[in-house]
Design brief:
The structure is a homodimer. In chain A, 79% of the residues lie in helices and 0% in strands. By secondary structure, chain A is mainly alpha-helical. In chain A, helix 1 packs across helix 2, helix 5 packs antiparallel against helix 11 and helix 9 runs antiparallel to helix 11. The longest helix of chain A has 26 residues. The relative contact order of chain A is 0.09. Chains A and B meet through helix 1, helix 4, helix 6, helix 9 and helix 10 of A and helix 1, helix 4, helix 6, helix 9 and helix 10 of B. The structure holds a DNA duplex.
Chain lengths: 204, 204
DNA sequence: GTCTATATCATGATAGAC
DNA sequence: GTCTATCATGATATAGAC
């Protein structure tokens, strides 16, 4: 019997649902397609997750945490600014090279009703960790070790350089006209490219 | 009678559809909601645009062109690299400050089936304009006027810094924890922030 | 051109046998 | 737990009166 089967089936569902939801979004995803991908039928799918919303929330919650927990834990560390930034670059690039559609999914669903999702899925305690980053930047600026810059723009620049190429891939490919293979090679190099670009921009 | 009414109604539909599709995407948009926003009924909506797909294509085509035509025309110009980049920053930031949801919409729908959309909506002649940018960068690098850098990464960096904050707004707000008002103020400053960041990074 | 009413179909969800 | 119906809803699309 089936305490083992339970787990296998539920995991099969979650894994299938993650793929479908990430690829097509909540609105585009079909319970039938998720059931097919998990090799079960709709009835059983609804047995494990009563509604599409409940299943979606399970997937989205994991995705959102994956997307922000890295950065929160790094920002909370006691480290020099440069090391913090390098760690963020390494951490995110590793994550995104493995799961390129994650940020687009999170951003999209978040943008439908950000407040609701944040309240629902995030321990609001995670608040205001950014003030540490801000303090780091001001310290480095005052010590003359980096150029004067607004820490919020600096932070946005950092995240933009890392995340956007993955999110905006289809648009970038239209403009630059490179194929998937070239694109992938470019992303492999990008970890170091972003690190050096940030350092170049900040040198006094 | 109604040659005037035609135009007004069609424009009302296009304007309503643009709002709804951009906000909710193809899958999330409802013909009923578009009809409501245009102050007509579903029957009339289908009289002007036989299917949802046809209406969507009309909207998406405009959005895609708006998103890439700027940049294509600028890249095609005979101008020093720095001026080119400043023009791209100004052009895009103006566009996005006026229509912040445009890039997310384009990227999303594009990512569903990039090839189909590109073939359908873009004169494929627009190809390979990027080689001009590449040549500009190499010239500046060889002349020692900017730091050594891969032109494709440089281009990605430029677009990322401009576009991502608008696309990733909900996620950035989760991490930085700023409200809409602060965010808007930040975007107002950002035009100059990006210009100076790019120049700082490239100085030899 | 514009409206109301309706056909058609797809989807999320449930009921009930095994 | 798993499956096979089946229901109920809501969405696109059409028909036909005005």
């Amino acid at each position: 019997m089936s305490s083992t089967n339970n787990i296998n089936t539920e995991e099969k569902i979650l894994s299938a649902a993650a793929e479908i939801f990430q690829e097509k979004g909540y609105d585009g995803a079909r319970m039938q397609e998720i059931a097919d991908k998990a090799n079960i039928n709709k009835g059983l799918l609804h047995y494990y997750f009563k509604t599409k919303d409940i299943l979606f929330d399970a997937i989205f919650s994991i995705a959102l945490k994956r997307m922000v927990s890295n950065i929160h834990s790094i920002l909370a560390m006691e480290l020099p600014l440069e090391e913090k930034m390098d760690m963020i670059i390494d951490g995110y690039m590793n994550l995104l090279l493995r799961n390129a559609t994650l940020p687009r999914f999170v951003i999209n669903e978040l943008s439908k009703d950000a407040d609701r999702f944040i309240a629902k899925h995030l321990n609001s305690s995670a608040n205001s960790i950014f003030i540490d980053f801000d303090a780091s930047v001001k310290k480095e600026v005052n010590a003359g070790r980096i150029k004067q810059i607004d820490s919020r723009h600096l932070f946005m620049n950092l995240i933009s350089l890392i995340v956007f190429p993955f999110v905006g891939k289809p648009m970038l490919q239209v403009i630059i006209s490179i194929d998937n293979k070239e694109f992938h090679a470019l992303m492999q190099e990008r970890r170091e490219a972003v690190k050096s670009f940030m350092k170049m921009a900040l040198r006094p």
